[in-house]
Every structure is written in C-alpha cells, then in structure tokens.
Amino acid sequence: MNFQLPFTPEQASSMALEVDQLTIYLVAMTAIFTTLIGVMVIAFAVKYRQRVPSDAVGSNFENSAFLEVTWTIIPLLIVLVTFGWGLKVFFRLSRPPANAVQYYVSGKQWMWKIQHPTGQREINELHVPVGQPTELVMTSEDVIHSFFVPAFRVKQDVVPGRTSKLWFTPTKPGRYHLFCTEFCGVEHSKMIGTVVVQEPNEYQAWLAGAPAAKSTAGAGAALFAQHACNTCHLDQEGGRGPLLAGIYGMEIELADGSKVIVDEAYLRESILHPTAKVVRGYEPLMPSFQGQVTEEALVQLVRYVKSLSDTKTASHASRPATSTTRDSQGAAQ
Ligand code: CUA
User: Given this structure, which CATH class describes domain 216-332?
Assistant: First the structure.
C-alpha cells in the first residue's frame, strides 16, 4: 500500500509511509462505518415508514444469540487491530534508534535555536544529512512550543522545564517546512523554519562553512568550571559529590534505596533540584542552580556530563568516538 493521501505533504522520512498507512486505515474505517450507518438510517426510515393503521400491533421480537455475538466480536476485532497498529507506530515514533545523532533545539518566542553536535548553530534552519537517524533534544526558554515537520510526519511539544525528544531519518534531499504548532503568543504564526536535507558530502561542506561556536560539551565544560562544580565532583572517587565520568546511562541507587537511570531528565533535575534524588552514600550538600543557569546552559552542562561517559566507551563504540573528536575540534575553534 505505497500511496499517498491527497492534500498531504510528500513523504520524506523513514516513518512517513507507516504514519500515512495508519491514517489511511483510520480514514477508511471511519468512512465505511459513517456510510454504512447513514445509508441504513435512510433506508430503514423509508422502508418502515408508517403505512399501516395506527392501532396495528407489532410482531413478536425474539433475541438472536448469533446476532448479539456477531456484532460484539466484529467491532472488538476492529478496535483491537486499530489499537495494536496505533501502538506499533507510536512505539516506533517514540524510540529513537541507538545510532541516532543528537541535535539540540531550544524554542523561544518566536524562533527555533538549533545546535549541531559539532557546535554549529542555526536559527530557524536545521541542516541534516540524508539517511542519518537524527534525534532532537528539545527544551523551551519560555512557553510551550511544538516542533512539527509535516513531510517527516513528526511533531512533539517543547515544554519549559522539561526535555522532550523527537527523531526522524530523512530519506530525500530537499527543503521542508518546519512549523511551531502550539499557540505561543502574537507571533506564533511567524515561528516557522526550514529543515534542509542534504547529501552527506554537501552536509560536510555546509558544516565546514557554518559558524561554529564551542561545541555543546565544550561550552558545558567551561560552565562546569565556572560554577565550581569540579570542587565536589572530582575526576576520581572521593569527592563530596558522585563521580560523574561514566555515570550517564547507568542505574544508580538513591538514598531511599530506590533506583534511577541517569538520563537527561535526571541530570537536569539534579542540577535544578539537587536534593530531590540524592545518590546513596552522599550528603544532600549541593546547592540548587535554579535561576542561575539558562536553559541553554543546562543543555550544555548535561551534554558535558554525558560526554564524560562517551570518552569512557569510545574504544568500543564508533559514534561517541567521532562525536568526541568533533567536540574537541569545535572547542578549538
Ligand atoms: Cu512557538 Cu507557536
């Protein structure tokens, strides 16, 4: 079933066809039942209109177990198929592939600020190479925005105080619309941009020519020193705070005995509300950095802590190794 609904944008990501197939199924189901019920309402109204004396008595009505079971089982099967299919597509959309390359997106009234893993920055434009699984790690600096690329069939709310993610693999070079789809103020309608999908060599050429600030992790390292985080989080065990190298992605035990996976959300919370989830064996000494670091700085700090784990595994994972090399190039620029 490789076709497109009329009036829809072209299919330019690996998920687009799957999303469209599900949409077509849902539209077809709705159309079939709307027509069926509509036709029956009209047909029965005509067929059984009153043409007998008004004092006539109706015939006896008997229950039919067969009919009851049939009209229970068939809709049940249809609903289960709809649920299962929707769930499958939802899971695929919400789980980025392990080799996805992360870009950082920050929504702000009224623009999209984007930073590449290699440090390049863009506003209202996102350049990505075709065929690369791409994950966006998104935050908002003010109100709720929503990142929507119709040609990729992906959309995700961007919420202040939280990190949300979205992924896609672009399949066709081209320029695609990017919209904010959450009403976010008077210039919401102008919060638009372009996703530019390029051949890998064109993308490399673009990267080389684009203005690069410090890489995200590099900027995070500077903030880490500036806020004196390194006085407690030492390079080796024995600091007043937990050792951060290699911690990303690990399951750690908290003071109350519960366990938590160290991910972006946990690191973010631990910077803003350090006492919320204290690692077992440590005192709740860390001050809150709420209001002292911007959203952008938070992303950089989290990325830096994450990079400490990348280096550790660089020898047996190819992606962190390249991103580390690029980070150091970015830091040098
Ligand atoms: Cu941002 Cu609408």
Answer: mainly alpha
